Prior knowledge:
The structure holds two protein chains of two kinds.
Chain A: H1 4-38, H2 40-67, H3 74-98, H4 103-108, H5 111-139, H6 144-166, E1 183-185, E2 188-190, H7 192-214, H8 216-226, H9 228-233, H10 238-259, H11 272-285, H12 290-310, H13 318-330
Antiparallel strand pairs in A: 1-2
Chain B: E1 5-16, E2 19-30, E3 34-38, H1 45-53, E4 60-65, E5 68-69, H2 75-80, E6 83-86, H3 98-105, H4 112-125, H5 127-131, H6 142-154, E7 160-164, H7 172-187, E8 191-196, H8 199-205, E9 208-213, E10 216-222, H9 223-227, H10 230-237
Parallel strand pairs in B: 3-8, 3-9, 6-7, 7-8
Antiparallel strand pairs in B: 1-2, 1-4, 4-5, 9-10
Amino acid sequence: MTSAATNxxxxxxxxxxxxxxxxxxxxxxxxxxxxxxxxxxxxxTTLVTGGMWALMAAGLAMVFGVMNIPNFAHGELFxxxxxxxxxxxxxxxxxxxxxxxxxxxxxxxxxxxxxxALVVGAIAGVLLEAVLFRPLRRRSREQWVMNTFLxxxxxxxxxxxxxxxxxxNDFHGVPAYWDVPPISLFGVPISVDRAMVLVIxxxxxxxxxxxxxxxxxxxxxxxxxxxxxxxQMAGIDLNRIFILxxxxxxxxxxxxxASLLFLFPAYPDVGLQPLYTAWFVVILxxxxxxxxxxxxxxxxxLLQNLTIFYIQVGWVDVLPTVFIILILLFKPSGLFGSAVKxxxxx
Amino acid sequence: xxxxxxxDVAHVEAxxxxxxxxxxxxxxVDEGEFVALLGPNGAGKTxxxxxxxxxxxxxxxxxxxxxxxxxxxxxxxxxxxxxxxVSESLNLFPAMTVRENLQVGANSVRNKAQVASTMELVxxxxxxxxxxxxxxxxxxxxxxxxxxxxxxxxxxxxSLLLVDEPSLGLAPMATVATFDALKALRERGVTILLVEQNxxxxxxxxxxxxxxxxxxxxxxxxxxxLLSNPHVQAAYLGI
Lengths: 346, 239
């Protein structure tokens, strides 16, 4: 329980954190505005990749905040999504190659694959909770974060290698979802595929935020992340919330994989880079903070795209990491980390 | 089922791992009654409430709520049956506003009009919460937090409310306000089982009380009976 005295002491701290956070955000915004004139393509790619990292990172942050699970198998849900989308989209693509006059199929394009990926991702999440985490939770909650970290890292290895054994090492991808000329956004030519990814990310994140803020179930999820005992006292069934949380998180990761199939073809460890990036984002934003993860995703995407454009692709993981280390030195709880702690820290 | 019996705890034994805390505890609460459970630190008062609310499995004995056995049922099920519990540490949601905390309290209520009218009732009872409705719970004062915890406990319109040490850590003025609120609740017909260490005030307030010492019920009686009981006077009232 926080006493009045600790509240008073935390005021200057809070002010410092605000300033530091605003400084970083201001800097990012300034760079975006500058690049909008100097190099608009950076802004556009930042929005597109940032949107997808946001889908990955928001789910990762939610699972950590609600269930205290550092999910290192999150990238494999990305893989699941991209392979599912490939499987569903391939016959559609074949039909289109045979008969290019099927306009309705052309417009429909990747959407069936995405919907199926979303559903398959959700089912995988529910299974992970029901088959792995629930039995572990029932057995013991000691060393929970460490144990679930090892468990998810193990799941990642098993999934990657099972995929390699059954499906193989080939790249299963598509050159483009829509074979149409690029459109123009802020004067920058952008492929329809990328524009669609941006729209999907924005719509999904908005719906997700509305769900968490405005609905009873969303409130229940937030309640569990803030106080499990209090949530049970209010009649909330923790098991139901855990299933739902895991399902939504994994569905979002699978949707990201499906949407980015034209950039990331399905192959055994395609999920690793999105996983690392999502972890960069979540650590940068502050563990368990969902809105922070969305903003952090765009900051990391900006850093990556600046690196790619001004330095070279090889440095794409180095510079953001250095930046994150610098931020953590000054603000160990992350940009948006607050005094409000997860259950396991209390 | 006994007529009007809301809660019946019969010969309950409970504890944590190897440490047994409660020994053969029996108590009951009838419809509309205001009952207190008194006793020194470590007597097992909180353990009793936690066991009733479903956060602790009883080792032995029966607990029934309105005739339905609830011993060992998960806490959220017990809560949904209409047994509200306000814990000692309150367990509020610090990063949610006062209003959101109350809304979560009404989680199991489907009827929106009912939620709105219960919230109005809570705001009537605690006008302070109305003033702070859009403030985060983590920024409230100690007294306001107690009010919010009791208010959240009321949101599901429970037919029995368990309240654990509402006066703990409060300034005298805030304690008086909390007890006034409990009195008002009782006048509205809410059945309450209260755990307290503030023996004198409590005995003047309640219908009946139990005294728990070292995990066993040692005394039982009306508030007046216990006020004049020599053991209570010597051990708790300093007379």
